[in-house]
Write a structure and sequence with these properties.
The structure is a single chain. With about 270 residues, the chain is α/β, with parallel strands linked by helices. The protein folds into 2 domains: about 5-115 and about 220-265, D-Maltodextrin-Binding Protein, domain 2 (3-Layer(aba) Sandwich), CATH 3.40.190; about 120-215, 3-Layer(aba) Sandwich (D-Maltodextrin-Binding Protein, domain 2). The chain is built from 10 helices and 10 strands. A 5-stranded mixed β-sheet has the order 2-1-3-10-4. It has a 3-stranded antiparallel β-sheet with strand order 8-5-9. A two-stranded parallel ribbon has the order 6-7. Helix 6 links the parallel strand 6 and strand 7 (about 165-170). Helix 1 packs across helix 10. The longest helix is centred in the N-terminal third of the chain and has 16 residues, at about 5-20.
């Protein structure tokens, strides 16, 4: 799946907000770069290639930013980190952000990076599953914690009760449950787990790929968010929404030469 990572817009937003919250009174070339932290949703992987490429190419520095990119992990919730003051910017899927807002977290989405979803549900053709409607009565693995909403919406669309008509399984951060056929279907991202399954020797023609985009139940994924008061401070300074002068990184894959070696095998979900 081709994804347009409009990192230039994010660069402009980060620079705009950070500069506004620094205050006025000094020319940009008279002050040290603003130190900000971007909390990622997960560990280092292709999903975040654009941010690392921008850092290595000096694009943040050109915007008077000293950006620390903090990887996520199974026990890290970006919304909690930002709400608690541990980072100025967070990156997560929109459903997770909305859930946090419903619980009172004062967070605002300021940039939506992915226009459509990279999440899929995989099954072996030999299992007899041909599509989402065949998940009834099956063991279906998915990541919880805000990653399950597309699957739940799909089940509802086919009138499959997740409490009665299917057995939902907490999916670990690998594809072993599916590969060992302990479940009938499992979640996968196009830029990660799908390739893991192929690397395990499975042929694409042996798989059924349930695409939530085609089902009409996909959720918006990577978005950058900040605390509401952080955004309000920028607005009070009369700053524009984003600077058009910041360049963009069109697909992270086009910047591979700038990204260094691939992350370790255990650094990808």
């Amino acid at each position: 799946m081709k994804r347009r990572m409009v990192v230039g817009v994010v660069l402009g937003l980060l620079a705009t907000l950070a500069t506004a919250n620094r205050g006025q009174g000094q020319a940009p070339d008279k002050v040290a770069p603003d130190k900000v932290t971007l909390q990622l949703k997960w560990v280092t992987q292709a999903q975040f290639a654009g941010y690392y490429a921008a850092k290595q190419q000096g694009l943040y520095g050109a915007e008077q930013l000293d950006v620390t990119i903090r990887p996520g992990g199974p026990d890290i919730v970006p919304e909690r980190v930002v709400a608690g003051g541990g980072a100025q910017f967070g990156l997560d899927w929109l459903p997770s952000l909305l859930s946090a807002r419903e619980q009172g977290a004062p967070l605002v989405n300021i940039a939506q990076l992915f226009a459509y979803s990279g999440m899929r549900e995989l099954a072996f053709k030999a299992s007899g599953i041909k599509g989402a409607g065949d998940l009834r009565g099956r063991k279906v693995a998915v990541w919880f914690g805000g990653n399950e909403f597309a699957l739940l919406a799909t089940l509802e669309q086919y009138r499959i009760d997740p409490q009665k008509d299917v057995t939902l399984v907490q999916q670990p951060f690998d594809m072993n449950l599916l590969l060992q056929k302990q479940v009938d279907a499992a979640a996968a991202m196009t830029y990660n787990e799908y390739k893991q399954v192929l690397d395990a020797g499975v042929k694409p023609e042996d798989l059924v790929v349930i695409d939530f985009n085609k089902e009409g139940t996909a959720m918006l994924e990577d978005g950058v968010f900040v605390k509401a008061d952080y955004l309000k401070a920028a607005k009070n300074q009369g700053k524009p929404g984003a600077r058009a002068s910041a360049p963009d990184l069109d697909d992270g894959r086009d910047q591979q030469a700038h990204l260094g070696p691939a992350p370790a095998d255990d650094a990808a979900r």
